[in-house]
Write a structure and sequence with these properties.
Layout (H helix, E strand, L loop, with lengths): L1 E6 L3 H11 L5 E5 L9 H10 L4 E4 L13 H12 L5 E5 L4 H13 L3 E8 L6 H12 L5 E7 L11 H10 L2 E7 L4 H10 L4 E4 L11 E2 H10 L11
Length: 237
């Protein structure tokens, strides 16, 4: 599936984007960390309600590529409040203080929201054994969806990520979202769904990406369709 990621500092424009792109996307990621002022619960509920697609709320901290300007305590309080708006998914970083992280995961699951435990490396792509260790640590949180995203410095860096898909499925029985950022990782956003990635993330159009290397939604959708993603071949009886 393709998730369109939207971000805007202006609350009214973000709401308009949610209505527009929520009608195109299979999943809509709404980056509430970019808002110019703290949102109300009512506003967060409006964001969920205007989107025809299931919503992921993400409030990313700065050292993982986010735009939230407040304290960590304020950010986590915002995530807790956002859960009350009942999005389909909530992004919760692996690096969050353990007790608070587990409390947020429990809050999400108690409301029927699927937590996505995420981890990002903007400096590069570690070797596969290190990535496996991070995957295992992420799985230990109890979340059923893990997101691991690295920065590609070379076109072959995604090869280090690929073994994670089998381990997530066979060893942990969880869903994995994984690909590489950056120009060298753009192809991984196309190939990741074929490897088993639950989601790949797209920009609304050129110049509006929320992460390095995002491909515009219409282009990414066309690429995946041309390559036959989602097509099943029935066996002859």
């Amino acid at each position: 599936m393709i998730a369109i990621s939207i971000s805007n500092s202006d609350p009214s424009r973000l709401l308009s984007q949610a209505a527009r792109y929520g009608g195109l996307a299979q999943v809509l990621e709404i980056r509430i960390d970019a808002l110019s002022r703290p949102p109300s619960l009512q506003y967060l509920r409006e964001l969920v309600d205007v989107s025809a697609a299931p919503v992921i709320f993400t409030c990313r901290k700065a050292d993982e590529g986010g735009m939230f300007s407040g304290s960590e305590a304020e950010r986590l309080d915002l995530i807790s409040m956002a859960l009350q708006a009942d999005p389909a998914f909530m992004d919760i970083e692996l690096q969050t203080e353990q007790d608070r992280r587990q409390d947020l995961i429990a809050q999400a699951e108690n409301r029927g929201i699927r937590p996505i435990v995420s981890w990002h490396d903007f400096s590069g792509t570690p070797d596969t054994p290190e990535l496996i260790s991070i995957l295992d640590r992420s799985a230990d949180t109890g979340a059923e969806i893990i997101k691991m995203v690295t920065m590609a410095r070379e076109s072959h860096d995604f090869c280090r990520v690929v073994p994670l898909f089998s381990r997530a499925r066979k060893r942990h029985g969880i869903k994995l979202i994984a690909f590489c950022m950056g120009e060298a990782g753009r192809y991984s956003r196309v190939s990741a769904p074929f490897m088993g990635s639950m989601l790949t993330f797209a920009a609304t159009d050129e110049g509006s990406s929320t992460a390095p290397g995002q491909i515009p939604f219409m282009d990414l959708q066309a690429m995946l369709q041309k390559l036959g993603y989602g097509v099943t071949v029935s066996k002859k009886s």
